[in-house]
Amino acid sequence: MILVSSCLAGLEVRYNGTHCLNERISELVMKKEAITVCPELLGGLSTPREPAEIIGGSGEDVLDGRAKVVSQSGSDVTEAFIKGAYLALERAQQLGATMIVLKENSPSCGSTNIYNGHFNGEKIAGNGVTAALLKRNGYDVISETVFS
Predict the structure, then answer these.
(1) pLDDT tens digits for 4-20?
(2) Distance of alpha carbon 10 from alpha carbon 122, whole angstroms
(3) Is residue 98 part of a domain?
(4) What's the chain's average pLDDT?
(5) Where in the sequence is the domain holding 12, given as residue range(s)?
(6) Residue 147 has what pLDDT?
(7) Is 148 a member of any domain?
(8) pLDDT number for residue 113
């Protein structure tokens, strides 16, 4: 079973209430070959919500308590991101996920790049919180940019 970011399947769950539809992923969900997950919603955040970025590192640093996830207005949303990551991990384990495709650049789902924490649109190499936790637990996590 494939676990995919909900926004890639066309669900309007992103921070601004939009999606990032990937036709191939949407088709897999319709065929019941993939299951959607949105760690930010699982963590208790709403749609829409303020944009958030990791401040002081990457998803690994958040999990280790060395960095935090902060909304654009300065609210600390770290706890929600960590909770959502652990619930996404539980879902992957329950499904016996063999592939995980997450939305690149997200503070939750980025598997190669994330935004730099300055809310200026610049990206840095790194994992989001959920991608980092899944990787720590032995899952291969790829982005929609390399999914073919």
Answers:
(1) 999 999 999 999 999 99
(2) 25
(3) yes
(4) 97
(5) 2-143
(6) 86
(7) no
(8) 97
Q: Convert 93-113 to b/e letters by CB count within 10 Å (16 or more is b).
A: eeeebebbbbbbbbbbbbbbb
Question: For 85-122, how does the pLDDT look when each residue is reduced to its tens digit (9 = 90+)?
Answer: 999 999 999 999 999 999 999 999 999 999 999 999 99
Strand, coil or helix: 1: coil
Q: Flag whether 35 is in a domain.
A: yes
> 130: closest CA among 96, 82, 91, 93?
82
Instruction: Give yes or no for residue 60 having a pLDDT over 70.
Output: yes
CB 33 within 8 A of CB 2: yes
Domain-embedded: residue 64: yes
CB 52 within 8 A of CB 70: yes
Number of separate domains in the chain: 1
Enter the tokens of residue 31: 């065929």
